[in-house]
Description:
Layout: H1 2-21, H2 24-65, H3 86-96, H4 107-123, H5 142-163, H6 167-198, H7 203-208, H8 223-236, H9 248-251, H10 261-286, H11 304-307, H12 311-331, H13 337-365
Amino acid sequence: xxxxxxxxVSEYILAPAVGLLVPDSYASNALYTLEVLVKIxxxxxxxxxxxxxxxxxxxxxxxxxxxxxxxxxxGFFGFRLWGLGQPxxxxxxxxxxxxxxxxxxxKRLFVIAPILAMAPSLAAWAVxxxxxxxxxxxxxxxxxxxxxxxxxxxxxxxxxGWASNSKYAFLGAMRSAAQIVSYEIAMGFAxxxxxxxxxxxxxxxxxxxQSGSVLxxxxxxxxxxxxxxxxxxVAETNRAPFDVAEGESExxxxxxxxxxxxxxxxxxxxxxxxxVLISVLTAVxxxxxxxxxxxxxxxxxxxxVISEPNIIWLLxxxxxxxxxxxxxxxxxxxxxxxxxxxxxxxxxLPITIIWIVVVSGMVVGGVGPWFN
Length: 372
């Protein structure tokens, strides 16, 4: 349906506009550029909307877990509507807050750092397949592209801590960078296991390789890797219980302690955008992406409504993993820094290395129904 809507927009809006404003010799290139921009906008606007209301969902869910109400005052047009206007109010407040650059700070790097933290989490969506045909760039090295881009976010954090000219910010940046790099290695080896299992770096083909019911997905043969990847994703996004970069008792607020207004909000948005990205990747790599969990089952598999693969299944799976992010924050206490480093280097790294050998053996042996 989404593809049909885009074709109608291209045929009846974009093509006539290009024909009126652009010479014929450049019309095809201009139309292609406009179509790509429309696709990018169609991905980024819902993503940013999701990021905004993920903050609302977090406060409401954690409030429910802790027997509180959460935001329930700010609504629309005089109606409270369970506080649904709170994210909009937060955005308006942050837009009008002054951005104060500390004396002695490197002004250019101070401004660039939030952009470097946010840009990779947005650019990674170029290769995310929403269904069999709905993907912006269906490249063969999609998994490698994701790994390369997500590794760039650490530069924004390091630059933010150094450019602030603050010892607290710098210490927070070093701790956060060490944590991200440590768990990035475990995540990289976990992706190698998925690559071996699917025999492709293309995210669409990885999803197609999991065709079948919920028992055909990679979460079952790669269960330890599935858990390592998701927990490493929680650590890489600096979320509780791994949020030592924001240990208020030690570092005030970590690497972004000197930031305010929209500059701070971009760091905040980057954290939530990375949460959504990790959740989508977990769904695509280990839980069948847009595939239905009832596909191929004896009774439910014959029902067309619930057995057909579509984007709804991907959104449902992503929502489940996002809920786990919020549940962890309300449940677990913050780990000590040495515990976090020990978990990454002494537990997750050996597990992933061993499991690469195990998965290779299962692929060579044709263990079914995943590798036959």
